[in-house]
Amino acid sequence: MKYILGIDIGTTAIKGAVIGEDGKIYGTKTSEYPLTTLPTGEVEADLKLYINAFTQSIKGAIADAKVDTSDVKCVGFSSTAETCVFLDKYNEPLCKVIAWMDTRATKEAEYLTAHFDKKDIINKVGFDGIYAIHPVSKILAVKNKTPEIFEKTRMFAQIKDYFIYRLTGEYYTDHSTASDHGFFDITNRCYWNEMLEFTGIKEEYLPKLVEPGTELGTISREAALEFGLDPETKINVGAFDQGCGAIGAGNTKPGIASESTGSALVTVATIDELNPDSKGDVPTLCSGIPGKYMYQPYCTGSIIMKWYRDVFCEAEKTVEEQTGLNAYTQMDEMVKATPAGADGLIMLPYFQGSGIPELNEKAEGVYYGINAGHTRGHFIRAIMEGLAIALKRMLECEEKLGATMTEIRSLGGGSKSKAWCQIKADILGMPVKVINNSESTPCMGCAILAGVANGMWSSIDEATEKFITIKETYYPNPENKETYEKVYKKYVEVTKALNPTFK
């Protein structure tokens, strides 16, 4: 049996999964790391935390799988696309890793958006403007605020690029990951020279560009010893986590869309031809499938649930410690006991700005309609319903561009919540399908890319058709249709009324 090691570098954790050529997951290991979030918008962490988690996830997944490392033929990568690492000439970090949701670069993003023609930005970047999450904005913020770091930087890398360097000795990135950087030309699939020149970023200080799923060669001898891998192991560049997640969900053709409710809420619709939104409302990126593209709207996700658990659910966390009953499971039961519509309580889930159609980075979270009869169950249900409505609004924008959707495949930690999946089906008015091993879809996606490149399977389609299976399907409850139509209408009204006040 041949195996692939899929590595997904997420917002707060790195997950390793050992996947066989039969498509089964034989072992996993998830290693978490804390992020430091400041009131001023900075979100960062020490690179050592990532390195420790990376090492633990590799060794832990292989140990869990109980396989010989000589049978692990290749390693594939999936990761966030906007988490920045600044490295000096010795490949040492010059500052802390800047996480994707960091908003320190809001002013720089506004400056770049104002400088370039909107049409050029849409055609080059696939967005209606440059945003604070884009690495180009983060790099410019570092240049403006800590110029000594910018001057010493010899590699502006993303977190995946750094670990590819650790395994191969070279910096590479793929088109799908680079397409969310703000200095990549999605039309011509190359770096956007005008943006690099304007910001002072030298192309020689950026990773080499390759197609998603490109095999980069054999692991270095030093890395094989460090991470306990076979010296003949092949390294694959993989793709952006949402692109990998879409592949791992079988979202490779029209009619199927996927949503991932992790730290961010992200939707993906795969498209064969580049067709950016002329208004720029719907982000368009290179797909994890070589040569294809995808629509990928996003907003803040289940990090809101984590916030609520951490701040307001001490009793549930204590029960979890004493009995092992997960705090989120207990929260789910509170939601099930609360009526659809949360008795008029509405939550605008704008903890890191709003998604489309507003795309307002300055938007903030809001509870609306609170009364003395509301319980914690109402507040939790309102979070779930608010994010489901945000999902519906994003999908509606994709459909206006011609994306067809008859089913939604649910991924990420949010897919574990039965209450939340049912809420999504009710609000979307279409089936929501949970994939087997839904929390491992990015690992599965990058493993499929690596396995195809390594000759284990003939194509991405062959692998997805064989191995991606449905665990559970949630159908819309017609009894809740009228309620959620009213909630949706009120949600939009409140958003429109408050949007001008976010400054």
Number of domains: 3
Mean pLDDT, to the nearest integer, reads 95
Helix count from the secondary structure assignment: 18
Radius of gyration: 22 Å
Low-confidence stretches: none
Shape: globular
How would you name the CATH homologous superfamily of the largest domain? ATPase, nucleotide binding domain
Relative strand content? 15-25%
Percentage of residues in helical conformation: 25-40%
Number of E-type strands = 26
CATH architecture of the largest domain: 2-Layer Sandwich
| End-to-end C-alpha gap | 57 Å
Q: State the CATH topology of the largest domain.
A: Nucleotidyltransferase, domain 5
The SS-based structural class is alpha+beta
Largest sheet: 8 strands, mixed
- Name of the CATH class of the largest domain: Alpha Beta
Layout of helices and strands:
Layout: E1 3-9, E2 13-20, E3 25-32, E4 36-37, E5 43-45, H1 47-65, E6 72-79, E7 84-87, E8 97-98, H2 106-115, H3 118-125, H4 135-145, H5 147-152, E9 155-158, H6 159-168, E10 172-174, H7 175-178, E11 184-185, E12 190-191, H8 193-199, E13 208-210, E14 215-218, H9 221-227, E15 234-236, E16 239-240, H10 241-248, E17 255-261, E18 264-271, E19 284-286, E20 293-295, E21 298-300, H11 303-312, H12 314-323, H13 327-336, E22 346-348, E23 366-368, H14 376-400, E24 405-411, H15 418-428, E25 432-435, H16 441-453, H17 460-467, E26 470-474, H18 481-498
Parallel strand pairs: 1-6, 6-15, 6-16, 10-13, 17-24, 24-25
Antiparallel strand pairs: 1-2, 2-3, 4-5, 5-8, 7-9, 11-12, 14-15, 17-18, 18-20, 18-21, 19-20, 22-23, 25-26
Helix pairs in contact: 2-4, 10-16, 11-12, 11-14, 12-13, 13-14, 14-15
